């Protein structure tokens, strides 16, 4: 996964203007893609960002880059909380909500 893709699709999140962005990314080797995600996380976690693969299918990965602290704040908003609870998402932590989304999309 290239820096160009991350900047192109996630600039608002990188700049702190948005909680998160999702984008599709092609790959030829799933092991290399997972290694790339780990490398990016090592760099970006220090800046309050996290990269998660939500789905791998047909040599395409659905990638979510987000700010955990902002997601936590957003999930505490009354309307978002009510909507997600109605849809069956757990609201204990942002990570639990994201894990449930991954399950709905199909295991990575």
Enumerate how many helices there are, as a single number: 5
Overall pLDDT confidence: 87
Helical percentage: 40-55%
Low-confidence stretches: none
Order of helices and strands: HEHEEHHH
Q: What is the overall shape? A: globular
What would your notes on this structure say?
The protein is of the alpha+beta class and 108 residues long. It has one domain (3-105). The protein contains five helices and three strands, in the order αβαββααα. It has helices spanning 3-14, 30-44, 68-75, 78-86, 94-105; strands at residues 20-26, 50-57, 60-66. Strands 1-3-2 form a three-stranded antiparallel sheet, sandwiched between helices. The mean pLDDT is 87.
Structure, briefly:
The chain is 52% helix and 20% strand. The chain has 108 residues and is α+β, with helices and mostly antiparallel strands.
Name a few traits of the molecule:
108 residues, globular, three-stranded antiparallel sheet, alpha+beta, 52% helix
Topology overview:
Blueprint: H1 3-14, E1 20-26, H2 30-44, E2 50-57, E3 60-66, H3 68-75, H4 78-86, H5 94-105
Antiparallel strand pairs: 1-3, 2-3
